[in-house]
Amino acid sequence: MWYNVRMDNNVALRVQNVSKSFILPTESTKNLKHFSMSVFKGTNTYKNLEVIKNLSFEVEKGDFYGIVGRNGSGKSTLLKLLAGIYFPDKGKIEVNGSLVPFIELGVGFNPELSGRENVYLNCALLGFNRSQTDKMYNEIVDFAELHEFMEQKLKNYSSGMQVRLAFSVAIMAQGDILILDEILAVGDETFQQKCFSYFAKLKKEKKTVILVTHSMGSVQDFCNKVLLIDKSGIIEEGNAAEISRKYRELNESQENTAVDTEKVSVIPSAIKIDANAQIDDSLIKLTAVFNSSIDIHDVVISLIIRRETGELVYRLTSDEKLSDVISFTKNTPKELSLEIENVFPDGIFCVDYTIRSRDRSTNYGVWDDIAKFNISHPQNNPEDKYWKLPAKFNLN
């Protein structure tokens, strides 16, 4: 069963031995007569599909907790169990505080009403009175960036506009635990960045968040703990780096099927790498020498710096910095160098490299923890800096 309880410890949500099954028909039933004859004959027209099996884990207060898995692993069912949309057949889910699921956006929207009217309708469904909605209205519209469309009927909105409005309303809800589906990062690139900035704000405020996603990038950006599930059960729980690696191994072991079910070629021995990191008070200098055993045309080189715990702090891809096509000539070394301002806090950091074809359909090399460096400032730590730090990028 699903319980809202008060726990004495630091646990925000506890899942204990939870199982969930669905009864599925094994053949189509054309009419009542056909169904009655099947029952009379004792024909088994249904099967029991166990989607979640004996699952247990805990989310502590302040965790940004990721749940990942391949298609068909049971993520969507688990998401709805946590949200209280489904109830477990066995086991129990305990929630310490109020829980707000951001998964079924736009439920309750009326296409015959205007955008403005739908804002007030959805806010009412979230428990806000008219006075509270009046105070939030401008903020909602500003976030959605739909000022000139608010008096139009919702049926005239594009699907992207509708979801943007629904998301903007949903983030007004306050709760102790938030459940986020990655599909919430909707719309164009600018609006997606606003969505992810909102996720970063939740992380900074130490909100308890559960993120269900396919994206290892999102996992490494935000999550301090990650649960990997497959075939109805838990494969492993750990930090973002460990689970990202395990997730990639799981996909590669399944005939290299990517999470979007498209085939991705993997050529693990095509390129060798020699990488290192040098640190001084002002600069972090990263170098990597690549040597390919084959000729390769038009690739993208990605570099990630992350904490030893797996949280990503810097990412760079070569097509962001260089307009030239990058190619490798057989047995001809190519050196990458990166100088980045040393504004990182104290701690141990790991460097990962990836080389893929520009269309991301072929992996020529994936190197985790290929270099490490330790930051230890003699005085006060600087503030954490993320993403677009001043940097000098070279590839010769």
Structure in words:
- Helix content is 25%, strand content 38%.
- The radius of gyration is 25 Å and the shape is globular.
- Helix 6 (189-204) links the parallel strand 7 (177-181) and strand 8.
- Helix 3 crosses helix 4 (130-144) and helix 4 crosses helix 5 (159-170).
- It has two domains: 1-98 and 175-263, P-loop containing nucleotide triphosphate hydrolases (Rossmann fold, 3-Layer(aba) Sandwich); 268-395, abc- transporter (atp binding component) like domain (Coagulation Factor XIII, Chain A, domain 1).
- With 396 residues, the chain is an alpha/beta fold.
- The N and C termini lie far apart (61 Å).
- The chain contains nine helices and 20 strands.
- The longest helix has 16 residues, at 189-204.
- 28% of the residues are buried.
- The chain has a six-stranded mixed β-sheet with strand order 6-7-8-4-9-10, with helices on both faces. Strands 11, 14, 15, 16, 18 and 19 form a six-stranded mixed β-sheet that branches.
